[in-house]
């Protein structure tokens, strides 16, 4: 005799409604997909589905608008914080956030990031720090660790020629316009839960017009790092977390 | 109602006209000779009256991307700069054109290349009219020749931009920006509400409509055939603009045996040259293109059958002259006279050049 197991009261987990069924283009082990899901969950749980405008980056996450069913603007490479600034200033009652890679945020868009944060724009910045330019094929980013290999640092990043890994979260935490900065990861279930809470806090602060929030998610990039997903996750834990330690850097409650 | 007549600089007229038109946002970075636009706006603090946002950005790059964000919400947004700053904006302008976002871009030109000079110039004609950014796109380009037109073309620029869902540019030189003239300002228009914007521009990203589909503004398309379709759609729109929106002024052209062709302050100078020539019995007329794109090719082609020669007068090394030559297609001699790097030609020297080159 068979019993129907699929009952509403048995449901412990479901995909957020805002995350549609389009196949994601991300590589195995990539953090983008998990963070997309968290953003969808938070928007849904906060009831902001019709109030949110997201700003997509140029980078692997450029297609985030294919997966999350909210209004989106796709910005030029690095300019998402400027785009978000105008959207929020012209629509102070809306939830406005950017979703950016570390190249987008900390290389070409450094100026826009710093100044949006310094003006205290009431936006949330979600930044995915995978220490590399994923989309263009694994070139060195400002965040690439010393000694870390990439297609433009084939012998490993050398400080004499390429400087030091840039800690954007630490930098913006100094700015008076910024109310919340945290560095998280999504490599384990507890980490995923913490990141979700961080995104929720950032979105809540934005809606309360407290200033700029930044949630940096330290991520692996198995394709860019030329590792298996498991190796990439282990390498991230053993190397990335040393230079980019997880936890809150600022919280103006 | 009594007319609102004032004496002011061209740059100030733009700021007043923007507020009165009901513009939602201005984003800019200081640069001579156009800083009065931002300064006047800050002085008038429209955020207290109409609710207009005025933001001094950290760079021209940030400013143009703010315009992208605001325009993407269906808001009336604008930026202004001068030549070096406009160079920085070009990537953003290309995104705005590709994304079909209506907005107003103002360039009060100064001499270049490089940092150049703060003196007036018209050397960004190519940059504006031929597409300074990457990709195949066009900017509706209005060339004011008076302080009155500086004010009037704010409204015209926005009206055209929203009619065609495409960016419009106002291209003036430092003289028009800095000189003071009488201007009649329009009455105050209300800014649109979000409900009105939703109704007029349903593509605007103002938060997904309840029960509706998400709106996505992007210029990315990896599938080449779809990208080509989008480009063809843009080109079809440009052809429609060319068919309907050409604007120009004909001054004493009826009996003209020769034509001067000039825009902006050079057109004002040429009006005097025309008087000097006619006093000597030489029948000279003047065509002043008001839209530099779409260019008044048809009227020039018609005059090419009637006149003996044409002279374009520009504060550059010969840019619009190429469009005049394309328009007349070899039917008549077209010469160019230009002063460069911030030098403004006098009516007499234009007359001398006209006699040497065309008469
Ligand atoms: C002006 C400009 N310069 C360069 C590029 C090429 N480009 C696209 S994505 C990218 C880097 C993306 O890296 P990151 O922001 O770290 O995001 P990821 O792909 O790793 O998620 C670059 C250099 C571009 N699109 N535009």
Question: Can you give a write-up of this model?
Answer:
The complex is a heterodimer of chains A (253) and B (359). Helix content of chain A is 36%, strand content 18%. Chain A is of the alpha/beta class and 253 residues long. Chain A has one domain (32-251): Rossmann fold (3-Layer(aba) Sandwich), CATH 3.40.50. Chain A has a seven-stranded mixed beta sheet with strand order 2-1-3-4-8-7-9, sandwiched between helices. A two-stranded antiparallel ribbon of chain A has the order 5-6. The radius of gyration of chain A is 18 Å and the shape is globular. The mean pLDDT of chain A is 96. By secondary structure, chain B is an alpha/beta fold. Chain B folds into two domains: 4-196, Rossmann fold; 248-357, 3-Layer(aba) Sandwich (Rossmann fold). Helix content of chain B is 42%, strand content 20%. In chain B, strands 3-2-4-5-7-6-13 form a seven-stranded mixed beta sheet, sandwiched between helices. A five-stranded mixed beta sheet of chain B has the order 10-12-11-14-15, sandwiched between helices. A two-stranded antiparallel ribbon of chain B has the order 1-8. Chains A and B meet through strand 1, strand 2, helix 2 and helix 4 of A and helix 3, helix 4 and strand 9 of B. Bound molecules: thiamine diphosphate. Thiamine diphosphate binds next to helix 3 and strand 5 of chain A.
Ligands and ions found: thiamine diphosphate
The CATH architecture of the largest domain in chain B is: 3-Layer(aba) Sandwich
Helix proportion of chain B = 40-55%
Biggest chain-to-chain interface with counts: A-B, 33 and 39 residues
- Read across the widest sheet of chain B, the strand sequence of neighbours is 3-2-4-5-7-6-13
Mean pLDDT of chain A: 96
